[in-house]
Each structure stands twice: as structure tokens, then as C-alpha cells.
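user: can you give me the structure for this one chain? C-alpha cells are fine.
assistant: on it. calling the predictor now.
[tool input]
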Amino acid sequence: MRLHKTQQLSQEVNMENQKRMAGVVLSLLVQLLFLTMGLPHSAQAAWGDLDPSFGTGGEVVTDFVSYNESSVAIQADRKIVVAGTAYNGTNWDFALARYNADGSLDPNFGTGGIVMTDFAYNDNAALVADSASSVAIQADGKIIAVGDVFNGTNSDFALARYNADGSLDTSFGTDGRVTTNFVSGYADPSCVKEVSQETDIASSSDAARSLAIQADGKIVIAGSVSPPSYCGYLVSTNYDFALARYNTDGSLDTSFGIGGKVMTDFASSDDEAYSVVIQNGKIIAAGYASNGSNRKDFALARYNADGSLDPSFGTGGKVTTDFASSYDYANSVAIQADGKIMVVGSAVNGINSWDFALARYNADGSLDSSFGTGGKVTTDFASSYDYANSVAIQADGKIIAAGSANNGTNDFALARYNADGSLDPGFGTGGKVTTDFASHYDYADSVAIQADGKIIVAGNTFNGTNNNFALARYLVESPNPSPGGTMPGSNVTVQPVDPNTNTSPVTLTFDNVTRSGSTTVTTSGTGTPPPNGFKLGNPPVYYHIETTAGFDGQVHVCISYSGISFGNENDLRLFHETSTGWQDATDPGYPDTVNKVICGTVSSFSLFGVFEEQGYSFTGFLPPLENPPVQNAAKAGQTIPVKWQLLDGSGGYISNPAVVSATLYRVVACNGSGSGENQVPAETSGASGLRYDFETNQFIYNWKTDKSWTGKCYTFTLRFDDGSEHSAYFSLK
């Protein structure tokens, strides 16, 4: 098991600290001064306060015996997925938990909202320590978690893909799981004898830290690898950036790098990638690089789609940034709507403590001089160790950095910055917030922003015996000037407000917004009738969705149907009206009857409806006919009037002849044995055909028989567009 990032950083600076004990004493005195000057927090809710509607007072703790980093992602239906590592009683496993919007565990996911995945499968008994570091949601709602597994000697990249219910997706890798020995198969052809998939000496510790999903669904993982010398058996002790790209089935994408893998050396002793993001089809990885003096700097590399370094970025595709400190670690990267690159991490501040460190880069990799001082910002929480581990960009362009701060104990720590890098005084106290889970050790590892702008932070808290998953949700102002404001970017989520109800019944997530605009939803009780076999709820509601924003790719639509009554919620479908009529857009795994949400995927907007599938109620054939098993006697060559009634799910009469998809007959044995000949379409008598009599509420079909049928037996069958069939039996004389 690898150390938590903050623990790793602490260990690396310990030797420096021992040399500067006088500075430590001074730092502690300064901390005590700040603590005694602290003012009590206002009881009035303010931006950055914990959200009392989430968990208990804004906090949620899940009793895992957990360890290491955790990662958070938000589904289109507002559910929250957290991935990390937990102890199964014997070994460490991937651990996932899914939460409802109120912070309660989602019982529709795994067992009581929790899933644990062991990679010791198919006799791979050596895989005893499995550690998940990052999680993301695919466009189809499936969940990808990545990390590494211990193979008995060292560690390998590991991926697992889950269906919406938490079960492993067996179409991915082997039973939903993939492991990658990073160096195996990577060497040049001339080194095949020395480095092969059968030669374990050719590998060392491979640590997957972060993942990103491309627009084409391919999966990019970034981390680190300690590579061997390519044409020998000696293994290097230094780490390099390591990236791997996988196809949607979990196989390595051989069009990327060498066999799906790329390693990047910054010409230094150790280089590790901690975060990865997609920028207009290119890949940016961020982490740290040793600068040759046993010190660390921020490090970024940008890659073309084929895995080659992008020469238009920095120097030969690489950038390093020194904060004039001994240790600078970049832990997270995000792309702003304007294409600038935001990186957060930690830097030693020169007095034996760490600060939040941020750097913003232009598209070419140069530091953005409009941000902070020369493109850089550091933030001190008046504590000895402040680590920024994750970054997210609000819709209004403000920057959220999340991590931990130590004032004798570790707490969750957040800071919000304006676009110019200055702290936002409207958030928390002077732009900063800390949260204590009544624990000595609270580490925040990952941050995400909900569609309503609220901030979700995930990490770990120590309960005195072991670590548990910990989440907190924070209040913020509206993320857009208007609730439907839709800003450029990838995976953009908006919740337009219906002017008729002043609520947000719809959540939309755009794959890619290319031009800003406004998205609106208007509900009404009138619209195009549902397709045959479906009905509206009570009260009837249609959703008319429009946007002035430019976008490409797909849009994921989630509608809350809370307050609408249906006969059976499990029969609900989400329909989207197109030029050819209603189209079923429902995503697999929906509806979610617990949270009363149904989601679907579309590529355009118009009218939407949540409709309940209804089976028809066939009352039986009406006189003069008898129903099975009775055989009706009739004279061959005559026209037989076939009459029936059909009811919908509400008990009302169905009168539309279009519900009858076919009228069929076939010859059968008169003794009832055998299935007889194939069914053929029935013929009608004259122009009377199929009609509906509104006075008697009956369908009438005049079936024309032939004189040649004398002495034979037949079945006459009605087939409806809900798939049901009903037959009557005849013996012709």
C-alpha cells in the first residue's frame, strides 16, 4: 500500500525540519497567536458554510476501514460516487460508495450503497492489496475506478468498470477488471528477449493516480512507473510519468504510444503524474519532477492524441515550475472555459511548513501573468501543513482548491479564488474554510461541483481506530447569473428553473458546450399524446427544453418526477419528441424509484415526457362469438363479425384502430392437436374493414372466409401494438 499524498510529502520534508528546529518553534508560536485571535463563526448561513441538508450538519462519514486517497464524481442524476480503498478483513480492496443527494447511502448500489472489489480472481492469489485512487462516470452512466494492485512483488495499474447498480461490467476486461504491468511489452523490439510479458524482472512499481475519459469513450490513466534499463535486467530506482490508454472494452489502445503506454522522463531523478485531463483532444498530465538538486517542482506534460509529446507546449511538450521552495508538488489539474490550465498542489514556504500552491498556464504552457504573481499563488492557513489536493472550476470562473490544513490536527481545507488569483472574501473567512470531523486526522482528497453549484469534498477521517470515508457539502451562491446559464466546457451541468413552478425539475449534462447561452425548461399539461401503449401521469406534465448555447456530442437529461402519480413507477420511460415522433431515450438502470428520477440521452432538444407503459386490457371476444376453448361453428364462405373491447391502464376505452397491428389466421387440427399451418393475414369483407363503434365502445372486424375452407378448423388472432395476442377458434362447415 502506498502512502497518502500528504503523508508522503510530510516524510520527504522531515529531514529538512530536523535541521530547522528553531524555525519550527517559531512557527508553532505563530499558530498559537492566530488561534487565540480567532473569532467564532457566525450562526447565519454564508457561502462556504456546511450545507445542513446534507448528512448530519453537512457531513457524512461511512464506516469503512479505509486507507489512502479517495476520489469523488457526481452522476447526471445528482448521486455522488466516492472511490477509495478499504480493508476486507484480510486484504485491501477497491471500495466504492454511492450516496443520494441528501447524503444517505443509495440502497440501489451494491450492498446498502457499498461495493468492494478484490482483484485476486482467476487464481491471481498474489493480488492482495488493491488501492483505488480515482473515479469517473462514463457518458452511459457506467462507473470507472482506477488505482493499482500489488502482484506479489510490485504494483500494477488496475481498472474496474461497474454497471449503474454497482455490479462489475463483464463486457470490460476480465469480469469487469483490468490490470496492466506497465513496463511489460513497452521496450523496443530489439529488447524483446530482455523485456517481455513473461519477464517480471522487467517491471517495478506502477501507480495509477488519475483518469480521464475522452469524448470517444477511451480511458486515459496517468500515474508513475519505475522503469528498467530498456536492454538489460537492471531496474531503475527512479520514477517517470506513466500514461496508458484503453479502449472501451478495457483492452490497451495500441494507437497510443507503444502498445497503449507512454513513459515521460523530465531528465531528473523522480517524476510522478498525479492528475490527468483532456484538453480539446490532447492530454495534459500534472505532477512533480525533481529539479536535479533533490528538490521537486510542478511538472506538466501535454500529449497529442497518439501519445507523442506536443512540441507546441512548453519545451518539447514539458513544463516545470519552481515556487522558490525545496518541494513543490502539483496534485490536480483542470481546464478553464477559456482554455487556460489551472494546477494546484503544495509548496514548502521556507519556514518548515507547506502552503496551498496554485499556478495557471496559458495554452502554450507559459505561466499566465494575469494570475497571482507571475502566474503563481500560495495560500497559508496559519498552520504548519497545508496541502491542496484537488481543484474544480465554478461556472462563474472562480477556482476551488481543496485539501487539508494542520493546526495541531488535520482538517478539511478549502480556498476559493477569483479569476485573478486573489482569495474571494465572500467565501468562508477571507476566502478560506476548514472543517473538523471531530477527528485528529481529516484529509480532503477530491472536490466536485454539483449542478446547483454546491461543493462536494471527499476524503478520509480517523475515528480513533481506523480511517473512514468522509464527505462534506458546502453552500455557495447561484453558479450562473441565471439558473440556466450554460458556459463553454466539457461535462457542463445546468439546472434550468421552470417559471411555472419556480423549481428545477430537470438536470442537463452536456458532453461539450462550444458557445455560451441560456438553457430553459417550461412545463405544461398539454402536448403531443404519448405513443400507443403509454400514458401520462397524474397530473399530466410535459417538459419543453430549449437552449441558445452551442454544443456538440450528447446531452444527458435527468427529470425528477416527484409529485406525479403513476400506477407502476417501474414501467416509466423517458421520451423525446423528434421530427419522426416520440423516441424512447431512457438510459439503462432507470427509473430510479427511490429518488424518483429518470434519465436519458439525446442529441437535440424539444418536448420531453415521462410516460408509463400500459398493457391493454382485452375484455374477450363479444357475442355472437365464444371465447376459447370453445370452437365457434360457422359456414365457410360467409363473413364473420369479430367484436371486442380494449381498455387502457386507467380502465378507459381505447378507440384508436391503430393499436391493432395485425389480424391473422391459420389452419389447425380440429382435434386440437398440433399447431397447424403458418399464420397468414386475414382478409376483410368489402370496405367495412376494421372500425370502432362509439355507441357500443366496440371494435368490429368483418373476417371474410372462403368456401374452400369447408370442413376445416381455424384460429383467428388479433395482435396489438403492445405485443399481446388474442385468438378465437372456428370450425367451418
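assistant: here you go. The first helix runs from residue 5 to 19. The mean pLDDT is 83.
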